[in-house]
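**Fold tokens**
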Amino acid sequence: MRLKQIKLSGFKSFVDPTVLDVPGQLIGVVGPNGCGKSNIMDAVRWVLGESRANELRGESMQDVIFSGSADRKPAARASVELVFDNSMGRIGGSWGVYAEVSVKRVLTRDGQSIYSINQQTVRRRDVHDLFLGTGLGPRAYAIIGQGTISRIIESKPEELRIFLEEAAGISRYKERRRDTENRLADTRENLTRVEDILRELDTNIARLEVQAKQAEKFRELDADRHDFQGLLWLARRNDALEQQRRASDRYRGLELKLDAELASLRETESALESARRDAGALADQLHAAQARYYEINSEVAKFESEIRFLEASKRQANDQLEALAQQQRKQVSEREQAEQMIGDSRQRLEALTVSVQDQSERVQQLAAQQQGLDLEIGSAQQQLEALREQLDQVRRERDAAQIRRQAAHDQGRQLDQGLLRNRQALDRLQPLDPDARHHQGLKLQAAEDEEARSGELEASLQARVGDAQAALSPNQENLRRAQSRHAEIEAKLQALVQLEARLSDESKMRPWLQAKGWQDNERFWQGIRVEAGWEAAVEAALRERLEGIALPSMQSLETLAVDAPPNKQVFFRGQLLPGQSPVKRGALETSNSLSGFRSMRELLQCADEQRSALLDRWLEGAFVADDLASALKSQSQIPLGQRLYTAQGHCIERDSVACHAADQAHEGRLARKRETEALQKNLRAQQLLLEQARQDAQAAERSAQDLAQQLGHARQAHLQATRVLAQVRLETERMNQTQRQHELEGSRLRKEIQDLEQEAKRQQQIETQVSEQIEQLDKHRVLLDEGFRRAQQASASAQQQLVRWRESFREAERQLDAYHYDLKSVTERLANASQRREALEESMQALAEQERLLRDRIGALRDDQARGQLDQSLALRIEAEASLSRCRADSEAMHQQCRAREEQRMLTERRLDPLREGLSSAALDEQAAKTTVEQCLQMMLDAKLDEAALRLRADEQHIAMKVSTLQTALQRITQAMDAMGAVNLAALDELQHARERQGFLRSQCADLSEAMQTLEGAIHKIDRETRDLLKQTYDQVNQNFGHFFPKLFGGGDAKLLLTGEEILDAGIQVTAHPPGKRNSSIHLLSGGEKALTAIALVFAIFQLNPAPFCLLDEVDAPLDDANTERYCDMVRSMSDQTQFLFITHNKVAMELAQQLVGVTMQERGVSRLVAVDLEAAADFAQAA
């Protein structure tokens, strides 16, 4: 697997879609600082599933999206895609079949993160699983960022173990173990839950047994109540029928009386209508007289209103004249006030003009004094700032010297303490006992022999278990196929049965048949069998006869005259009558034959002689043709009374053709019957095959389980031997390590004591020199303080003069502004007064004109003509009143006559009301009785009660068919049921269900216990395999580390040590000693030495499990040229197995690259890739 391309878009500074091709094994990335080179490394780490923002140099995951620049808007999303060449098939799982695999991650502003592999959306875990065991991942050793190289070597032992686990490829084992532990925890939880349910279920079963007995008794009472309720409904129906008859007789008698009264009412209404017409004519005359009177009265009111209007107008005009006179006097007074204001404003304006000129001259004089004061203050400030800087400089130098003196003093004290500790530690070192080392060697040999023996036994059993598992798979596959085939046949059969039942339930005949008790009688089609392919022809010939119902006797059909079925229905006798013999088939076939065509009767087989006899009669003259064309050719030869049927059901007679259309309710019933019988036969055969396959699979499984149990015991023994061996080896290694550490510790302590003594002398000399420097600085600071105080006093005096000048200048300006404001106000008042005077003069002229017009109007208002017209209208109104009185008298007499007729009609109608109410009451009684009859019948039908059965029970038990008696009996049964209290009617079903569930749960308990044992065995197996693999990896990496370290340093030694006894939990500690050094800790190495040590460790891991590619971000930054050359030689040798993509500023490292990729940021905030000339790479790095 090799990295082919890196595609970035919107990721950090790579806002534009960018494609980085990596065709070679050594690819260098160069560019100036801050151009975005490390963003490439972050992109790879991010797409591999990194979820920690700080590992991507950000505060939140949104920081990876381009946040915008001076010329660009922020991006809406970030996406990175890695394209791998998988032609070697190193990627496992379902994606291993692809020659090229792309992994992509997209993050949007709303926080939605999407992973995809080969354009298919996946989970983050799927991406993690894709690279398990390859050394790739967000936290794997194959991605080394800035500062990470030193953190690797300084990592905690537990953190360093992660790199070793990734190199060993046990990530998948850890995932499997975690999943197995989760399943084991779930299994334990489920087992506890099932046991709790079982305990609760036992309690429920005991309770349900008691409730089931009560339910049985309750059902018996309920059956009695059901029957008595039916008898009560039957008695009420009989009573209602008698009430209906009596109400009908009463209705007919009242109807005759009502007809006689209605005839009398018609005569009275005719006389009333004639009187109403005469009254209408008199009413018209009255209306005309009223209209004349109202018209004259309106003219009188109009003239009176006109006279009142003229008088009101005169009063209004006089009032307006008085108001105008008052307004004229007010405006004369206002004009005199405006004249007075104009004179006062002109005098004030002249005085303010003189004051403004004087104040302006004073402001100009004060402004001329400002320049001298500014120069004086500036000079004093410059002198003060210079002295302040000198004084601050002296203080900073003294503080720095004081810090150096204190540091030298503290360092000296620490050196003295270090000398004391090292001398004490050197005195405590003691050599180890040789006899103890010899005894430990014998113990190690015995543990190794036992581990080898148990390992051989486990391998032998493992091979046998593999053979048993291989033999088990075919049996299980056969069982699965048999179960699948059995389920398929059973499902088809169930579907056909359900379809047949649904079609039967949907029929309108079902309620009628249930009422007769014939719903379960056998149908005619159930006892016949039709030759395949001719079902439609038989259905067309027999039609509703196929649905014929078998009856034991035709006498039961006597009630059809009053209770006919809702649909067509055929009934047939289920058995031959005594002495009846079936018709001979041969005689029928001889007398009824059609040349060239088969008789339809030959296509059918019957289960009994009765059906055979019926078919002989029903199909007499029925023949079948192979196709419609041959039937039509022979149509003219068909004798009368005979017919031909095609396979599609079409009927051809001599003079007609009837096309067949299947009935939806009965379509395909014969074909479904034949298919059901075939499926039942196949199901029985398949059950035998399934049982045989189940027995074979169980036998193979038992054999595999026995071997697996033996293998488990052998693995336990091997695991124990391995643990003992690991413990002994650890003890031996600790003993050897202790001896070496004693030797190294002694040399180191003696060397450190010598170095500390020299350093203590040097720190004492530094402390003396710094004390003398502090004394000189104190003297200089005293002189500067005195000069600074004098400069402060001069500056303060100048500042006070400037403050006083500013106050005078502000006061002069304020007074000048006040004069300007007053001048402006007086000018505005003068202008307003002039405008007011002109407006008053115009208003006075307008008022004089209004006064003239009002006086002309008063002279024109006169009422002589209106008073003459009013007198004439009053005379006409008196004549109209007399005519109106005569018309009212005539109309009132006629109305008296109409009222008499109306009273006579109302008397007649009042006699009709009791008759109508009697009719309505009789009709309601009749309808109520009819409704009661229908309700009783409907309730009996809903309750599925048989009237004949009810009457039979009443006769047998001598039950009186009275409503009161039946109600009393029903109430007694109901009270008995109520006395039982709350009864669980479902107790019987619940008890059965609870017992079934109890058996099922007990089976589940056994299965869960077995599953727990299996999961625990799987965890032990994973631990053993992980321990072996991790131990082998540790030994190999330790060996490679000891090989690469001297090559990079030119000597020295390094190795890995376990910090615990159990390798699965122990941490990894690095010890490294460069040439000529015996440091006790890795932390005492320099930055470059730590970098080379980390590189050696990474290469040691690569040597064991080479990752597909490795990313190095300025790993060579702490190295000098010599170490860089050794580092490059090592990378070059490793590039045969691993693809390297490295960022560097070192020209030596640039020469290593087979391909150089440049990153620039010509547009601020936006990174781009450029091609780099390998010959100019050194100059490029030098410019950076």
